[in-house]
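Me: Here is a favour to ask of a fellow structure person. Could you put it straight underneath, so I can go through it closely?

Assistant:
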Amino acid sequence: MNVLHPPLKRLARTACWLLLIPLAAGLVRLRLDTEVLDLLPPGLPEVRGLRLYHEYFANQRDCLITVQAPNAEMAEEASRALVSRLRARPDLVTRITWQPPWLEQPLAGVEFIAALWFNQAPEIFGALTNRLLGAGAEQTLAATKERLAVTFSPADLAALARDPFGLLELPGASLPGSDTPAGRLFHSADGSFRVLFVEAQPPLPTYRQCAEWLGQVDQIVAAARTEGAISADTVIRYTGRPVFLAETATSMERDMISSVFGTLVIVSGLFYWAHRSWRPLLRLLALLLATLAITLAIGGLWFGTLNVISLGFAAILIGLVVDYGLIQHQEMMARPGHPVGAIRRAVAGGIGWSAVTTAGAFLTLNLTSLPGLGELGWLVAVGVATGAALMLGFALKSAPPAPATARALLQAVPGVAPDDASASRVRPVTAAVTTVALLAGAALLVGQPPRFDRSASALRLRGSTAFEAAQELQEKLGLGAHPLWMVIPGRDEGDARRRMVEVDERLRRAQAGGTIESYALPLAIWPQPDHQAANRSTARLLAGQLQPLRRSVLAAGFTAESLDLTATMLQVWAKAAESDQTFWPTDDASRWVFDQSVARTDAGWIVLATVHLRHAPPGPEGLADALRDLPGNGVLLASWELLGAGLFAVVARELPGILSVMALLITAALAFAFRAWRPIALGWSSLAAAAVLLGAIMAGFGWSWNLMNLMALPLLLGAGVDYSIHVQLALRRHHGNITAVRHTVGRALFLCAATTAAGFGSMSFSSNAGLASLGQVCAAGILSSYVVAVHLLPFWWRWAHGTRRPEP
């Protein structure tokens, strides 16, 4: 009998079509975010430090190309070939720096050197008048001619010929990183390894644009190899933000497609193996894809932008939602001739409470400080609710014909006897197996307790070529295995300088104490407004000496070109003396130097100090202890190692609260489902036994807990209690007949566990190490829950109820 009248049917059909409009809008609005830091707590100091570093000092368009050749000559030849070819493509590249700018263009760094002179103390800058005015200029030129006559150094000959007044020799001032060998930023000590800093011309806001740009650069490299400009044994690698962005997003996109496809293939194979039927299988697959599409559309409407790592929800969702269809189909096969509505009503309670507990478990992830896990939990919760509704409404269409007799009803499922006499004979065996298994698992856990990985490795890509290139760069340039960044904020130039002075004192003490090997702090190149104000009158005086200096240079026998550097420097001082504002050099070389360590924001200034440790501390905890006293007031110390320790502390602090909420939710669900204390106790007993088995599996395989797979605990609590609910409700329906339960719900749960474990297990092949470990732990936990619920819980249920059989 039709429940709805024709007008109501038309109205319902129209409403369904209208719902497609916002869902389509959600899919159109959906965007992917590839920034890993968006997954992390924004208030954590380590996250704030890394975010500031990536925002202001790791330009999204900056790519580093490394060249490793058998010797220095081949490395320089390959680098020159790449530089010339890339500079010939202004549509691809804005700027390439492969050696200090002042080495390629001798006058490129003059403005920067002039600014350093202008920042000197007034007595030092004023002493230039003795070198450049009147008789002092003639004495300086005579001393330079004497040095030229006795030196045999080509470098000195070239320098003195273009700088006869010695203005490139700064007293007490140095370039950033000058505590290391010259050129350390560009090549290794032996010259066989070189680095090219490449800035892309087009903006690269999306990972697809990054991948396309990298592909064009790679084509240029391949063409250079074909032409013989780069030898076959020269290795070219890429790193930097465009490379990480493209690599992360494309890997996760590929992982999502392969995991979804792989899970669907496993679901199809298991279903057809169990039921040999195509129509319900196709209906099941269609409902799974519809659930996935609706969830993505709702996520697009609600969030707009989803982090690419959150897309791992797809395989999880398929593995969870398919359970609801499998249970209904198995129940229908076990009840030939029963109306579809009656079958739905029989399993609706189990599916409903299962969806509530599973969705609740994933929603508890929103209680963490990690936005990425909260987003993942929200998507899975919405998908589980949507999938349960779709499966209950559309998974069943028709029932098989009824058997002739009641005995045939039980015989329709192979192996099911009308009574359960065999169950009593296997009780002692089951008790022994249960006891031995649990005791063995507990003993393994005691002998090899769970291990905890507090590093940030769970956030990285496995086998990342960009990460390997960055590590090789650090090693070849001798920058240490643990580069650290100190982010120093300042309201203005003066405040930033005061903070740098404090940090410099701390770093000097740490260096003297052996904690760090070296550090780079732009204190020596920072403008000093007081010194500049005092030096303006001297700068005006010197700027007016160009013509007398020209006459002196020519009279001393130097060429007119030898005065170009001095003339350029006088012009810079003239420009600096015209304004009352703090003078900052603005030429290309100066911008390149300051871009490495200085950034101006709406709130003021941000300065970056780079710290290199002398010895690698034993793990993130040792690193945190070694550097505990380095940050000062408002200074952020950032590194991926420190980030891992900080995140693990946050997760460990929040996990007890999440588990407490989850425990209340599970207890409430069991109470509403059964309204008796025995099923509640049995449900928790099965969860405890599954936890022991999971711990034993992790100990046996050497897995460790990390800041990502710790979130498997609430998920497994929610998913594990589902099996307990289904089994106990089935025991009620079948009046305690264990064999019947195993061949109905038990067989369905086998398929459920296999498909859910496949969904989680497919994540173990993820490029993201954290998602991979989460998938491994969840797959093992699901299988542990299945073994306990189907093969142990029914006998515990019989022991708890004795000979009394509760009514369904």
